[in-house]
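Notebook, p. 212. Picked up where the previous page left off. The plan for this session was modest: take the two constructs that came back from the sequencing core last week, fold each one, and keep the raw output in the notebook itself so nobody has to go hunting through shared drives later. Recording the first one now, exactly as returned: residue sequence, then the structure token string.
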Amino acid sequence: MRDDDNGFFLPEFCRVRTLFGVVVIVQLLVFLLVLAQPASASHWAALSLYSLYLQWIALASTVLLCALRPWLQRLAVMPAALAAAAVILLVTALVTEAAWRTVEGGATFGREHLEFQGRALGMAAIIITLVLRYYYVQHAWRSRLQAESRSRIEALQARIRPHFLFNCLNTIVSMIRTRPQEAEAAVENLAVLFRAGLNADGGFTTMQRELELVDDYLGLERLRLGDRLDVRWSLDELPRDALVPPLTLQPLLENAIYHGIEPRTEGGTITVLGGRQGKRLWLQIRNPRAREHRSRGMGMAQRNVEERLRLAFGRAVDFSVGEVDGDYVLTLALPYRTENDESADRG
């Protein structure tokens, strides 16, 4: 089993956030060691010495793992883990030797010296084993989540219903003789829509691209529904560079049309609102609640979109549905993230 650049089980130690986390965790370990000292010991002296000693090991190991990451990524999991452990143990041995010579003032290789080295390397080996095991378990957990996410996306892609495809094709066929140019444009829109569905790979896309996809989709639906479909937008305050999982908006609009517009002879109006509040985005989709209850597939698109949003943004996602004045209202809020934010996280 090999890990690619995006699936390597060790974290990116070159990131400032990771480096800060290492410093904080090591300092917490220092506090634990100091508290374990006898009451007669000088806690302040122990705090300063342990901090200097362990932080040197942690920072030097982090720098080396950062530099060696391209090489480690080419290895399988077990060799990479052993190589990383060897690097940290080597750093521990060197720093421990430097500390011994500094404190003792000599390079003696007596019993006390060997015991000091042995205790340091033994503690380091135990901590390294626990940390590497933790990173591997976290990596396996993330891999399972990503696999589940891909499965959900595939299920969501399959939700572009056969009846919708057949209706669109029948509409296009009826337009070929009387409105050939519109029929050609409809075929292109249909191709774009399905291409977007096939290319959705679980990453992120921009809000601008999502809105373009929705526009292509609504163009096809207007060919079927005509004046029965009225969509009103209020998205001037919605950042177009915001990152969202692909196929986030189109299934929600399809759900609104299928359950709120299609069953009504007179059609209806779908209202799409959106904006930004600080570091958060919000969207609201409102459609009439049809008098005829259509249970087939009810809520499937919403559940898929909600699950993918929560997988991408965690607990920072708010997703709710309700009824206002007889209309069905779906509201969601999520963090505002851009390509610059993603680059900063990688840097």
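Okay, moving on. Second construct, recorded in the same format:
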Amino acid sequence: MILVTGGTGLLGSHLLLDLLKSGKKVRAIRRETSDTGMVKKVFSYYIDQPEELFNRIEWVCADLMDFGAMEDAVQGVDEIYHAGAVVSFYPSDHKAMLKVNIDGTANLVNLALNRNVGKFCYVSSIATMGVAENGGVSNEETYWVPSRDNSVYSISKYGAEREVWRGIEEGLNAVIVNPSFILGPGFWQDNSGLFRLVWEGLKYYTEATNVYVDVRDVSKAMTGLMDGNHFGQRFICSAAGLSYLDFFSLIAKYLGKPAPSIKVSPWMTSAAWRIEAVRSWITGSKPEITKEMAIATTQNYRFSSEKLCNALNFEFRLLEDTIREICHIFLNDQGHVLSKN
């Protein structure tokens, strides 16, 4: 039996599909408020009869912070894929994110050790990697450095990684995967929201570069590393980098929309998050832009996945192909929404 946390998310739903297609017996964690219908929707993007595989999932209502419920969920489990986490750049979510991501991971690591779970895969992030000096390329040996500019999300994932490393020292067969910005379809209001923003007429871009990876490649890397017993290590999983202008322009091309045309300078993003902070304080609403968001959109990231490629003879999908396919799914989804109205 394989346990998957975060199964109702973008990566988790694709991982569930891959595991089920390979004939694995799968149990997935969900919260009381989670929408499992989105998992079936994701399945429908790739297979003709999504219900058949979806109905093979054993769903368990549990929370990473509920040790008793998680203890029941781990019963009889041989492998764990831990993809569940809180992801937010809003100050109001920081405390909960630190608690769930770090302490929740610690709970799961402890349970895996206590129940002698054979294999454990933790989904971390390139946010836990350091930035190479002089514009160099970061790899698994480029270590995270504490800084006031580090996002609370990166701090939470770094803390969670430390719990996994602690588990490895105590005998857990665990591997850590560090994906870059994950691209995939369906979650148009959050994970896949950049496609929706371009569809709605995004006009602005920053002169910086980010790194991306297809969600299917992350899932493939995870299962490959687990099947190959590549334990006690971490692996960057990133296909390539694109400037924000090139990235948004590709999305615009395949959605049939105008590309962003207004370049935003660093001082403008700095002013924007400060203005939003004041507006948020006055209105009591969440800011549209936070300090962490502003910093992230002005950085130039460069990461190497050479270690992963060598370990698994791995080849990434081309980013343009990924973007084109996601845009095609987005347009189909939009057509279904419009046809209902």
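Notes on construct two before I forget. The chain has 13 helices and twelve strands.
Flagging for discussion at group meeting.
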